[in-house]
Amino acid sequence: MRHTLTLLLIIGSLFSVNGQMKKWTLEECVTYAVDNNLTIEQFELDLENAKIDKSDAIGGFLPDFNANSNISERSGLVVDPNSNSNVSGTIFSVSPSLSSNITLFDGLRNVKRLQRAKLNTIANQYRLDDLKDDIRLNVANAYLQVLSSKEQLKVFKAQYAVTEQDLKRTKELVESGVSPRGDLLEIEATAANQEQQIVNGESLVLISRVNLAQLLQITDYENFDIADESFAVPPSDILNNSAKVIFDKALGFRNDIKFSEATVDLAKKDLEIAKGANYPTLGAFFRYNTFYSNQFQVVRDPQTGQPIINPNTMLPEFFREEFIDQLWLNDGISYGFQLNVPIFNGWSTKNGVKRSKISLERAELQFEQDKLALEATVQQAYVDVGTFEKAYEAASKTLEARRLAYDYAKERFDVGLMNSFDFSQAQARVDNAEADLIRTKYDYIFRLKILEFYFGLPISLN
User: Fold this and answer.
1) CATH number of the domain residue 334 falls in
2) Among the listed residues 47, 50, 60, 141, the one whose alpha carbon sits nearest the alpha carbon of residue 103
3) Which of 163, 299, 372, 425 is 20 to 30 Å apart from 240, CA to CA?
4) How far is CA 457 from the centre of its chain?
5) Which of helix, strand or coil describes residue 68?
């Protein structure tokens, strides 16, 4: 039993380690976020509702069919169904009926409602796809933030390792009397500052991981991490296209623009439906009805006057034969057409048309505003790519120059021609240049991916 328990614990710990070793790639993060986002699930329910509306609109072309029955008992002055005269007594009656109605013409509103339901389904699909696009961009940005924080942390740790070597060598020089104690104190201060940078860097990594996990709606922050990858700036020829070309292409496939355009189409269809209320409505109907009354309920023996009892059921005969006979004898049908001509209804139809026109104008204005917003976004993204590309190139040149200056300073420091303060300043400038290069690199990558996304390219770091 003990060996079995030990084996189970070992297997459980292996599974736990495997769970902690899960490393998420960008594609996995994007896919998971789209598949598990709660807002997306809500929008999918809205899409299902739109499909149900379409089914309702199709049902508007079909006749209805209903069954109805009235069962009542009255006492006092009642109408005798035999003589159709008022008598004193009690009467029990049953009046079942069947009816069917169909709309033949209602100003084509049933046709317009079906068209609107189809448009609404398409519009909800565009809205859902637009939300997915936004989530992909947000996840990509958060993913790059984690990568940037991790790379900065690696740089901080590498710099601290170099400083530890300098600290060890300086201690030896101070102890041998070659260097003053002030040099050691300066190196120790630099090491302490780098330790603080490492702590801050670890905090940034943790915060960026939590932010990404929250976008994915994952709460196990401790066991969530991304793949240990380092991405170089991917090659791209997106800037070979002008901002106008990118905007024109985005205008043709962006889901937010399609949704805005579909909203205009819905408003137009609502206006057509509102105008249809000005036309007459023509319908057809068919009704079948019958009734039963207890005034005919008892079949009596002509000699004794007593109710005739059915020997099979031990019930009065009317429950089996006379009830059914009455339904057949008293039934009838009616059918015809019904015309309803709107003449005056308190200006409700007229005002409904006016409201629909206002809604249409508002939708058209929103559509134009969305196109202008997209154009501004594309223009800004285009400018950002050029700006951050130059910033990244400048940061690369700066880091190269700082490293050369640091190497020269280190050579002088090692032979005693530079004091520790000046040397620590040279090292600090290298640290800042490396951190700035990492930041500008991932800023540039993200802006590049945004512009490519508006050009119709999928989000990928390859």
Assistant:
1) 1.20.1600.10
2) 60
3) 372
4) 21
5) strand
